[in-house]
Amino acid sequence: MLKTDVVTALGTMSGTSLDGVDAAILRTDGRRIQGFGPVDYRAYTPEEQAVLRSGLGRWQDDDVAAVATVVEEAHFALMRGFEGVDIAGFHGQTLAHDPDGRRTHQCGDGARLAAALDLPVVWDFRSADVSRGGQGAPLAPFYHFALAKWIGAEQPVAFLNLGGVGNLTWVDPTFDAPEEAGALIAFDTGPANAPINDLMRSRTGAAFDEGGALAAQGQADAQVLAAFAADPYFARTPPKSLDRDAFASLTEAVTALPIADAAATLTQAAVQAVAGSMAHCPASPQTVYVTGGGRRNATMMAGLRDALNCDVHPVEKAGLDGDMLEAQAFAFLAVRVALGLPTSAPGTTGVGAPTGGGTVSRP
Questions:
Q1: Whole-angstrom distance, CA of residue 359 vs CA of residue 29
Q2: Can you name the residues that pair with 71 across neighbouring β-strands?
Q3: N or C: which end of the chain has fewer CB within 10 A?
Q4: How far is 253 from 274, CA to CA, in rounded Å?
Q5: Which residues contact 323 (CB under 8 A, 6 or more apart)?
């Protein structure tokens, strides 16, 4: 269906932080990055966020029509502003994720978007992996492999996405393809911004702890952190993945703390989860490149630099756009799906063999 070797793909992402929709253009052949294009963002209104939150934890057979409408209309409003697009990747909004039960739910109908945009749309990226025993997440690692090649990395590097949940990709750029055994290891590290955002919303009405300023004023609770570190998730060998609210007990554990101490504890928990995860990497990465909203949290970033035995930089240090990396990833994956190439592998999701996912809907 793709008429040229290098195509212009539009990728979108609406993450677990529920802040809005990212969209980005990527020029690619599905194997290598050829160039970057325009990007855009549409924030969800408070009313839309309330609808999205009402759908968290719900599955395909639940009544999520209102959530789907918000997701589809927000994406259409953003995506229609791009020109010269050959194919689009639509991730949808994750409402529930249970890989052990072999099910996952990304709300939103890509076929409706394909019809509305008059454009081929690739969507439902995770179901095939989950149905074959994989975790269905994270899916950005194949794109991270291409990024490592793009920036000219010669030693292992890691990409750390600090969204609602944290996830880490360890990349060995000496391999030729991401599906090769040993090229990638990827997994969710633990909670990142979601508990902090929920704390701020419930206690102050703010959407997040801007710059980590509140956490910087507090004292992390050692007892809460010790209980958090004892969770069996951290000892599990990757690949492994988490639902947004998998660590609800952590949020409950800080309810009696002063808000600054609660923010400090949740921020340190995110750092602690990442630091512990490095033991699962085959070798220490030369650099950890941080993407997602967490890279703007100065307290979290300072904690990571103290805790990790390597350089820690926002991805902008490598000339990349940390706000749009995941949207670009789904542009990249959309092209791979259209070409019949794998989008996950044993080292990234734990699936038994390299697997291609996604549904292609044509207008």
A1: 19
A2: none
A3: N
A4: 20
A5: 22, 39, 41
Q: Tell me, what amino acid is at 282?
A: P
* Structural tokens at position 192: 């990142």
Q: Please list, in sequence order, all residues whose beta carbon lies within 8 angstroms of the beta carbon of residue 311, skipping any fewer than 6 positions away.
A: 286, 287, 288
pLDDT single digits (tens) 240-283: 888 777 888 999 999 999 999 999 999 999 999 999 999 999 99
CA angle 318, 166, 45 (to 5 degrees): 95
Residue 51 φ/ψ region, left for φ over 0, alpha for ψ in the -120 to 50 degree band, beta for the rest: alpha
The rounded distance, in Å, linking the Cα atoms of 78 and 42 is 6
First and final C-alpha spacing in the chain: 13
Nearest to 161 by CA among 56, 20, 274: 274
pTM: 0.92
Whether residue 2 is predicted with pLDDT greater than 80 in this model: the reply is no
Q: Are strands 287-291 and 157-162 parallel, antiparallel or unpaired?
A: parallel
Q: Residue 31: what are its φ and ψ, rounded to 5°?
A: -120, -45
Q: Is the pLDDT of residue 203 over 90?
A: yes
Amino acid 144: pLDDT:
98
Residue the block writes with tokens 């025993």 = 133
Instruction: Annotate 319-363 with DSSP letters as a single string.
Output: T--TTTHHHHHHHHHHHHHHHT--SB-HHHH--SS-B---EEE--
* Mean pLDDT taken over the chain: 95
Give the up-direction half-sphere exposure of residue 147: CA atoms within 13 A in the CB hemisphere: 32
The H or E element containing residue 146 is helix 141-150
Kindly give, in sequence order, each residue whose CB lies less than 8 Å from that of residue 47, ignoring residues fewer than 6 positions away.
none
